[in-house]
Amino acid sequence: MKNLSLKELNIGLSSKKFSSEELTKFFLNEIKTSNPKINAFITVDEEKSLQQARDADKRISQDNMNELTGIPIAQKDIFCAKGWKTTCGSKMLDNFYSPYDSKVIELFNQSGAVNLGKTNMDEFAMGSSNETSYYGEVRNPWNLDYVPGGSSGGSAAAVASGMAPAATATDTGGSIRQPASLCGLTGLKPTYGLVSRFGMIAFASSLDQAGPIAKSAEDCALMLKVMAAHDTRDSTSIKQNIPDYLKSLDNPIKGKTIGLPKEFFNDDLNQEVKIVLEQVIDSYQKMGVNFKEISLANSHLSIPVYYVIAPAEASSNLSRYDGVKFGYRAKEFKDLEEMYLKTREQGFGEEVKRRILVGTYVLSAGYYDAYYLKAQKIRRLIADDFKNAFKECDLIFAPSCPSTAFKIGDKTEDPVSMYMQDMYTISTNLAGLPAISSPAGFINKMPVGFQLIGNYFDEATILNFTHQYQQITDWHQKTPGADV
Amino acid sequence: MSWDIVIGIETHVQLTTQTKIFSGASTSFGMPANENACLVSLAYPGTLPVLNKEAVKKAIKFGLAVNADIAEHSVFARKNYFYPDLPKGYQISQFELPVVNNGFLTIGDNKKIRILRAHLEEDAGKSVHGILNNQTGIDLNRAGTPLLEIVTEPDMNSAQEAIAYAKKLHNLVQWIGVCDGNMQEGSFRCDVNVSVKPSGSEKLGTRREIKNLNSFRNMEQAINFEVNWQIEQLEDGNEIVQSTVLFNPDTGETRAMRSKEEANDYRYFPDPDLLPLKITQEDIDDIRSTLGELPEVSIKRLVEDFKLNDADASIITSNKQTYEFFQSLISEGLDPKITANWIVVNLFAKLNDNELSINESPINKDQFVLLIRRIMDKTISNNAAKKIFDLLWDDPKVEVDQSIESLGLKQVSDSSAILPLVQEVIAHNQAMVEQFKSGKDKAFNALVGQVMKLSKGKANPGQVSELLKDELNKV
User: Fold this and answer.
1) Catalytic one among A20, A90, A151, A181?
2) A5 is catalytic
3) Residue A17 pLDDT more than 90?
4) Would you identify the CATH topology of the domain A1-484?
5) What does the DSSP 8-state code read for residue B414?
6) What's the half-sphere exposure (Cβ side, CA atoms, 13 Å) at B216?
7) Which of A14, A455, B205, B464 is placed for a possible disulfide with B197 were both Cys, Cβ 3.0 to 4.6 Å?
8) CA–CA separation, A156 vs A148, rounded Å?
């Protein structure tokens, strides 16, 4: 069961080869064995999962199943799930049991999927290595001394190690694509507004977007089919028909055009990564796809712009964690002011505090125009670059990350070098565009991915191109321990 | 030295929507603590605001009623500060781009008070001190209640003008149905900015803001105290420090709460959870069609069509209920002037004595109509009608015609019956007749009074006057 695709699991369940309960027990067992080494899960609740599995089996026996019924899915601990501890990787929410389901959880429940557990993550999704989690760092299944990436490092490590068939994740600046790349997986960040943010704990509201991390484009298509839905409880959720992403996976791609941003393929690009990416380009060319140089002239401003806007929003979003209503409260204090100070001093980790400070600063009177307002203007320019580029091509090709995974502890003392992890992913969040990271090969036995960026709500084309690539390569089928 | 007073007012008007501005929680007043606090009100992780369109409609309606511009594009912003009754750690409000801009109201003798802007925002909750072993509790029932904050230019120059504006606004928001106007429950709260400057000076003085005035009486007292205090300070050579002050109704004094230096930096920025608010001309036209007649127009109609005097007309239109009551009486065919007079003089006297609003009036409307009709058809005199009105007030089951009968109040309009009385009075009051003849009009009224007395109040006063005039001419 370990390396089966979602489609294969679905067939196994519907043909009664195994039950959901058996399948769930199998993965719970995998978690028992592997999680102590990898630390991909914060919360596992066997009884809850098995109850859902038994309910799914009932549905299956009544022939009332769809693609995900009975399949265990790992849920990033950023999604509120009723009755489940929902921590967002923070001490601040260590005692928080959500009284309600997020839209994403609701949709998985409706489809009959089994919640396999809540995956580890950087605290409040702030980080690119999963080292900022209150629950300890997650280890990369390909080499336990290395980080899995972040912030969805738990979700990526869970899938890469075979503890879960697929997982949910969220991406604010690269938090789906970077860990997918570092763990040899396929991760899709959808268009902003496609997946509801209701019940997804906010980091930076104008950038946050949920999506899947899975073993293949096909699995991602299946996951996205469940996750994408209009939601009246999220004002930024888009109301439009959701295409069947599975149906377009085999559409012909011959004669289509992929744009190559010259700003990404310059001397700054890591030579080893470049070699891998050239092979990907070669593969696409063999399938009859044309490549065309395009320009994203403002992309070099993405990181500074992001590190103004995201912390600004975060500083406000995280104000609610004040010890008054829920979550952590300092034990001793003499007055209200001290209760606030101690609660937030003790409840938040270093990286979260750093971003709250930055965000508070850039929104302050006298600095707002120079930082926040200017960043918003550049954000518009970055989006315009993409808009113009898509006049010339169907998709845009990019590196996913500047390198393969780095060693645990290597970048913790240097936040800026950590922030550079997202240099190829952040501009799509700023523009609100969908993008995928797919396995492209290995460098020194560590996985590396490539990125395809699509036009707004064109996830179908992204998945189609990725699936076609995965039909003629087997990088996505490699698992840790295999000879790469 | 003489001083100019400069006043601007910010009013928080609670909009009458069923649910909160960004969630489906109820806005009903007087519920047990936190009964109306849903997960959004509590700012639970992952919850998001969704704009209540009713609140927007009411804001637009207000904007149209004050001849303002309705913004096609307005933006909700976050106002960030920590306070226990502010669950998200920020208030969603409109900052740079409000929904309503550049309106005005007129007061008194056509003085224009400009309304700079009106913006939508959510109310905070309440801290309840001294409960649970002397701790402070938080009640979030009010958190998220829709408010419209209406901001004037500093166009008022006395406490009287400020009160006139506030009363006019108070009437208007109820008239157009966007606010219940209940000041005790906090549905209509005023912050008043007061400054003084040497008479004629161009430069505005430093202002102090009196917070949260919830009655017109308090507002008047507070402004007067504050103005005197500021003038005293300046005349003593002190400077006014820009600050926020509170009014204490017990002492009648204002006292500084915090100065500008201590003010928060609210770090406003557009709320990324909410899309910009787009309002189309169609939306505006739809809402305009529901606006109905405004008090300004009604007052004009009362004066022009019904020939009421300005004073009566403005009292009749001081709230919509009174105006509608008046309209419903007129539609029964009653005389507008007599009716207006009866509402303004007799009904309002009773209501005021008993501190009741017109909605709470115990008077049976059908009997009230009948009463006025009996005055019109001269069955009873105005004085007799007052007696019956008192009975109607005390007991809604009283019937007018029956009371006229049983109390013997029927008016005598038969001149053959009144004439002998007139002649008798002239005969017995020669001194008064002389006075009248020598040009003292007062004497005439006294003679009328004598005739009325003799008729035990039953004679028709109009007829008495006429007959008396004729008879006196013969003397």
Assistant:
1) A151
2) no
3) yes
4) Amidase signature (AS) enzymes (3.90.1300)
5) -
6) 14
7) B205
8) 7
- Sheet containing strand B90-94, edge to edge, reads B90-94, B76-80, B269-270
Question: What is the structure's pLDDT at B440?
Answer: 83
Q: Which residues of B touch A326 (CB under 8 A)?
A: 42, 44-45
* Residue extents of the structural domains in chain A: 1-484
d(CA A114, CA A31): 15
Interface of B with A (CB under 8 A): 39, 42-51, 78, 80, 82, 84, 87-90, 138, 265, 267-269, 272-275
| pLDDT reported for residue B72 | 97
CA distance B111 to chain A (A): 37
**A86 lies within 8 A of chain B by CB:** yes
- What stretch of H or E contains A299? none
Between CA A125 and CA A172 the distance in angstroms is 8
Whether A443 shows a pLDDT value over 80: the answer reads yes
- Residue B33 predicted with pLDDT over 80: yes
Does the structure show a pLDDT above 90 at A439?
yes
Placement of tokens 């928060």 in the chain? B264
What confidence tens digit (pLDDT) does each residue in B205-237 have?
Answer: 999 999 989 899 999 999 999 999 999 999 999
d(CA A6, CA A433): 26
Which residues are CB-neighbours of B444 under 8 A, at least 6 positions away?
B436, B468, B472
Residue A100 with chain B: CB contacts under 8 Å: 39, 44
pLDDT higher than threshold 80 for residue A483: no
ipTM score assigned to the predicted complex:
0.96
Tell me: pLDDT of B260 over 80: no
Cβ-defined contact of A234 to B48 (cutoff 8 Å): yes
Nearest to B84 among A93, A197, A336 (CB): A336
